[in-house]
Design a protein that fits this description.
The chain has 5 helices and 7 strands, in the order αβααββββαβαβ. It has helices at 2-18, 38-44, 58-69, 151-176, 188-194; strands at residues 25-26, 89-95, 98-103, 108-114, 132-139, 178-180, 201-211. Strand 2 and strand 3 form a beta hairpin.
Length: 213
C-alpha cells in the first residue's frame, strides 16, 4: 500500500511539473439533442483530412467527448460499451496549448502536458494541423484479474473497445458537421512519454477533429 501511494504521488508530481501552467478546462454540460438523424449521419459518414483552422467551441468539444465515451446513465455506464464494463478506453485531448485527459465523471479536461503535441499524430506534412486531436488509449489495468482475462484477451478487447469509441466519434462528427479520420499511425514512443503512459496503457488510435472547410 505504501509503495502504491508513493507511485501515485510521483505520478501527480509529474503531471504538475509538465502541465503546471495549464488549468483544468471545465466543459459545458453536453447537449443531447440536435444534429442529423442516425441514418442521415451514417449516410454522410466519411474520413476527411481537410480541416478548417478554427478551434472547436467548448460546447462542441464537450458534446464530442460525451458522445465518444461519456457517461449516459446514472449507474456510470458509458455511451460506448466495453468488455466486462471495464471502461478501459481513456481519451487524451491535444489542443494547441497542451494535452489533457478527459474525465467523464467530472466532465473536465485534466492537464497532462503543456505545449503543442498535435504533430505527433502524424498526417501529411503539407496539411495544416487540425485544431483538436483525440488519442485513444486502452488501459489493461482496468480489467478484473481472472483466469479468463489473459493478457492476449485483454489486449484484443482493448483494440475492440477503442474501435467502438472511434466509431462513436465518426458518427458524431458526421451528424454534427465536423471532419474526422481514424488513424493508427503516430509517434508512439514520443507520445508515451508526453502522455506519461504506464506499461498497462497502449495507444490504439487517434482522431483529428475540426470543422469542415
Amino acid at each position: 500500500m505504501k509503495y502504491l501511494l508513493i507511485a501515485a504521488l510521483a505520478f501527480a508530481s509529474f503531471i504538475n511539473v509538465n502541465a503546471q501552467n495549464l488549468p483544468n478546462i471545465e466543459l459545458n454540460a453536453p447537449e443531447k439533442t440536435g444534429g442529423l438523424t442516425v441514418m442521415e449521419a451514417f449516410a454522410k459518414r466519411q474520413s476527411s483530412s481537410e480541416f478548417g483552422d478554427k478551434e472547436l467551441s467548448k460546447q462542441d468539444l464537450s458534446n464530442l467527448l460525451w458522445a465518444a465515451n461519456g457517461i449516459n446513465r446514472e449507474n456510470g455506464k458509458r455511451t460506448a460499451p466495453s468488455s466486462q464494463n471495464s471502461q478501459d478506453i481513456d481519451i487524451y485531448v491535444a489542443l494547441p496549448q497542451g494535452v489533457y485527459k478527459f474525465d467523464p465523471k467530472s466532465n473536465n479536461l485534466v492537464p497532462v502536458a503543456e505545449s503543442d503535441y498535435r504533430g505527433l499524430a502524424g498526417g501529411k506534412k503539407d496539411n495544416p494541423l487540425p485544431p483538436t486531436i483525440l488519442y485513444l488509449v486502452a488501459d489493461a489495468s482496468k480489467y478484473t484479474p481472472s483466469a479468463y482475462n489473459t493478457m492476449e484477451h485483454i489486449t484484443n478487447m482493448g483494440k475492440v473497445d477503442a474501435g467502438i469509441v472511434s466509431q462513436n466519434i465518426a458518427i458524431f462528427c458526421s451528424g454534427m458537421g465536423l471532419a474526422t479520420k481514424p488513424r493508427a499511425q503516430m509517434n508512439h514512443a514520443e507520445l508515451k512519454k508526453v502522455l506519461n503512459l504506464s506499461d498497462s496503457q497502449t495507444l490504439i488510435l487517434n482522431h483529428p477533429v475540426g470543422y469542415l472547410e
